[in-house]
Amino acid sequence: MILTKTQLLPATDDSLALAARLLAEGELVAFPTETVYGLGAHAMDAQAVLGIFSAKGRPADNPLIVHIHDRSQLDGICEVNDAAIRLMDAFWPGPLTIILPRKDAVPDEVTAKLDTVAVRMPSHPVAMALLKACNLPIAAPSANRSGKPSPTSARHVFDDMDGRIPLIIDGGESDVGLESTVISLAGEKPCILRPGGVTKAMLEEVLGPVDLAGSILRPLEKGEKALSPGMMYKHYSPDGQVTLIEGEESAVVEALRRLYAHAASEGHRACVMCFTEHVAALADCHPHDIGSKDDPTEVAHRLFATLRGLDDEKMDVIFSEVVPPEGVGLAVMNRLGRAAAFRTVWSMVLYIALESGFMSSDTPGMFAPFNQ
Fold first, then answer.
1. Residue 112, beta-bridge partner list
2. Distance between CA 308 and CA 301 in Å, rounded?
3. Are the CB atoms for 308 and 339 separated by under 8 Å?
4. Is residue 168 within 8 Å of residue 154, measured between CB atoms?
5. What DSSP string runs through 246-313?
6. From residue 133, how far is each of 18, 127, 193, 246, 281 by CA, in Å?
7. Residues 179, 202: Cα–Cα separation, whole Å
8. In the predicted model, what is the mean pLDDT of residues 6-24?
9. Of 6, 79, 283, 301, whose CB count within 10 A is highest?
């Protein structure tokens, strides 16, 4: 791709006017939302949308989300049903993406040739101001290189996109820190394809029973299509190898200590991602505090920034605690699972293997995948 000069500008009337002009001309603009930063292009301009895939290095079979500022914009994009209207009334503007049957005018490049399209109305004031200024539907995945942790600050975007896009609008740190919940209303029953800040319980208060896609906590099966962004096998990943440690709390802490010691002894730049409550116990393991074990919303807010910080420190082996996959915790585990390519160690199994002599500090391949 041809490199370009990237401007990083604070959100002002002038910078938003520049962004609106660039989008209308088929250029790309990164902008803040309440979830993460998005990389936007005019959704009805196929060539502009292709630029997103080029800038991100993103597979073309991964669909995009169309962002709007007014529901009237949906008239040329999708077929809206009663369930969608109820969700919009309850959660828009906000971190909820709704998948609906598409209209023919939507380019295949936006939908990955699916017969559905994902739409959302963000609540971030800068995102809304930009959408109103350009008055266009904007296709926007997260503004990171494909597969990397999503950006929650303008600096994260600049680190990934410098020279690849003309403009980044700085609107401060993202509030939520994880991408929007994605729910499909295109089937017989509402189904969550990607969990986020709008939880299953919140959706069911509006719609009644809602299904969870089986792929939320597992990789896509061979030949299975990605019906939503964020469903790829390995996604949101730092450069280092991430391994998740599950089990009883004290056993997890001990497993983290042992795994870190072994990794460090082999010369790895290793660390642990742990809860605030365990930082002191893991003080010798280069701990990174991901928030309280009793507050998955805090963990969600810190997660991507923590993963990006590990790249800055050039960590190559990372061990992480996990949260129960309930409420917002389900969204955290969806992202952590893909960041780790679903590499998981059960702390008790590891403990028994070490104590029995089945595995020792000299065991080759200690950091090969432990898939559960």
1. none
2. 13
3. no
4. yes
5. ESSHHHHHHHHHHHHHHHHHTT--EEEEE-GGGTTTTGGG-EEE---TT-HHHHHHHHHHHHHHHHHT
6. 10, 10, 31, 47, 51
7. 17
8. 98
9. 301
pTM of the model: 0.90
Q: Which residue has the tokens 């200024």?
A: 133
Q: What is the pLDDT of residues 132-152, one digit of tens each?
A: 999 999 999 999 998 889 999
- The whole-angstrom separation of Cα 327 and Cα 329 is 5
Q: Which residue bears the tokens 């990006």? A: 308
- Residue 364: burial class (beta carbons within 10 Å; 0-12, 13-18, 19+): exposed
Neighbours of 172 (CB within 10 A): 13
Report how far residue 304's alpha carbon sits from residue 155's, in angstroms, rounded to the nearest whole number: 13
Token pair of 251, please?
A: 């056993």
Q: What is the C-alpha to C-alpha distance for residues 194 and 217, in angstroms, rounded to an integer?
A: 10
pLDDT in tens, 207-243: 999 999 988 877 666 655 656 665 554 567 899 999 9
How many CB atoms sit inside 10 A of residue 352's CB?
12
Q: Which two tokens stand for residue 119?
A: 């739409």
Q: What are the C-alpha distances in Å from 38 to residues 28, 52, 55, 62, 87?
A: 10, 10, 12, 15, 22
- Per the CB < 8 A criterion, the answer to whether 190 and 83 are in contact is yes
